[in-house]
Amino acid sequence: MCKDCGCSITDHHHDHEHHSHTHQAAHETLHHNPQLNDGKTIEVISKILDKNDHEAQHNREHFDRHGVLAINLMSSPGSGKTTLLEKMSETAPFRFGVIEGDLETNRDADRIREKGIPAYQITTGSACHLDAFMVHKGLHEMPLDDIDVCFVENVGNLVCPASYDVGTHLNIVLVSVPEGGDKIEKYPVMFRQADLVLITKTDLLPYFDYDIEHEKAQARRIKPGVDILEVNIKEPETIQHVIDWIEFKRKMR
Q: Which tens digit of pLDDT belongs to each residue from 15-34?
């Protein structure tokens, strides 16, 4: 089961000794969870995480062979991941595809395809996150020779996705103004994994008691030096700033 929330995950049969930063964060979470802190549970989950990390490294190598930058998008449900991708498709200088993760429905993948972007939907059923094995299946459905960037739009959740390396190169975490001003402090494991934090739906700032500078400070307390951008889909320049950040990272590879 998932150590964080109890959802079902599948154990896969691979062996390795690779321990990523995400893996270590997962173990930290595990050892502070009294419901799971017994020898047998720790051994089982450690094996699952080890196998996941091995597959994640395989995914990264696969992306690298094709010269594709892979980016994991993580957030709560409804923070604007799919809308951001739709908006980027209109002006991004790079070609991209999307591996979508949701418990049910193909709605997000259908929205992306309507923009002419290749998308592959993963429906996880009861699992509240994607793992490296799910993404491995999806990347084989992506036209990797024809794209520059592959986004993995993870299941909407600020807990479990942070603990599973899926084989991407970068993590972008979104947090929206309507979620309130405590999400960064309450879910530090997620924001500790972020290479870029996007504070979305800033057009709603006049209607919420949300101290955006305080939230930025909290994000940098958890992850010193993390990049932070504000996003308002009604202001194209804010979308362009995200595109520019991704393009810079792509060219620096």
A: 333 334 554 555 455 555 55
Averaged pLDDT score across all residues of the chain? 87
Mean pLDDT of all residues in 154-169: 92
Retrieve residue 18's tokens: 């690779």
Q: Structure pTM?
A: 0.84
Band (52; pLDDT cuts 50, 70, 90): very high
Burial 230-242 (b: 16+ CB within 10 A, else e): bbbbeeeebbeeb
Distance CA 129, CA 156 (A): 8
